[in-house]
Amino acid sequence: MAVLPDLLTLCRFPGALGLLCLPAGSAGFWGCYLLCGMTDLLDGWLARRLHSESDLGARLDSTADLCFTLAVFIRLWPALAASRTLVACCAVTALLRLSASAVVKARFGRFGSLHTRANKITGALLFVSLPLYRNVRLSLLLAPVCLAALVSAVEELYLSFTASRWDPDQPGL
Description:
The protein is mainly alpha-helical. It has helices spanning about 5-10, 10-20, 25-50, 55-80, 85-110, 115-130, 140-160. Helix 3 (about 25-50) runs antiparallel to helix 4. The N and C termini lie far apart (about 35 Å). The mean pLDDT is about 90.
């Protein structure tokens, strides 16, 4: 049972690949999307319930989250590219996240990202936004997601600088 959370996390890798390969809006696409979102929601919760949290699990989760987010970003690029403001927000957010990762590497000898509340809220906003795109202009849906991502990236950079030890499960400010 202790490996179940890691197996759930591993499901996000083929799910993210499916998001890139399957036609947008198809049943397979939405199945992969749901798989990625649900495994992201359940893996950490289950690891805590089973007392099977591990460094490997945290690294797998961060990497799987990155793959899922990149796949969604690539699929959303046509809508994002239509707005210079959204592109700028995404670029600044990416730069802040890379900076935070570099700070973590320099300070703690490893790459990693934090599982703060702000990062979880950003992920949830992104997850619920995409299915709504048919009813609302996508750029309007993505504006609050980009703002939340920007705020969470600033928080992550700050925490990376100020943490006394590496703890990926910091709740945030």
